[in-house]
Structure formats: C-alpha cells, structure tokens
Design a protein that fits this description.
Layout lengths: L1 H11 L15 E7 L5 H17 L4 E9 L2 E8 L11
Antiparallel strand pairs: 1-3, 2-3
C-alpha cells in the first residue's frame, strides 16, 4: 500500500499547478500634487523635485517615478519587499 501511494505521488507531482514566478504586489504609494495654471516646468521645479528629494531619503525606497504636466504632478514611490511597512505608534 505504501509503495502504491508513493507511485501515485510520483506520477501526480509533475501535474501540480505551480507558477514559475510568484505574483508579488510591491508596496507602492502614489502622491499627486496640483498647482492650477502652472506649466509642466514649474510643476517639476516647484513641486515634483522637492518631493522626490524628500522621498529619496526614506529607507527602503527602491524606485521613484514621476510625471509633471500642466497644473499637476504625480510621483510613484516603490518600497523594497523586505521593508516593514506597518504603522508604528509612538
């Protein structure tokens, strides 16, 4: 009986659905800023760049992506998977 169970296990094992790469949701935040009527260059200089400088100082940031357009800017901050992102109360 044990040999039969082992044989069934050996035959069935390759048929198990296993993903080659796991689905991972990276911890990411999206920050948007608005300055109505400002040009894309003004948004980049006055809003996006100072925020990027501050976000880059945070430990565990792996990627910063930003866009500036007429009157608005958007920054995506991605953190390392190993970073502990739980809120801590002091």
């Amino acid at each position: 009986m044990a040999i039969g169970l082992l044989a069934v296990g050996v035959v069935a094992f390759p048929m198990l659905p296993i993903a080659p790469l796991p689905q991972v949701d990276f911890p990411t935040i999206q920050v948007t800023g608005a300055l109505p009527g400002a040009s894309a260059e003004t948004m980049a200089a006055s809003v996006t760049t100072p925020l990027e400088r501050q976000f880059s100082l945070i430990a565990g940031v792996t990627e910063l992506t930003s866009t500036s357009s007429l009157g608005s800017s958007s920054i995506a901050v991605q953190f390392a998977l190993s970073r502990d992102n739980r809120c801590r109360r002091r």
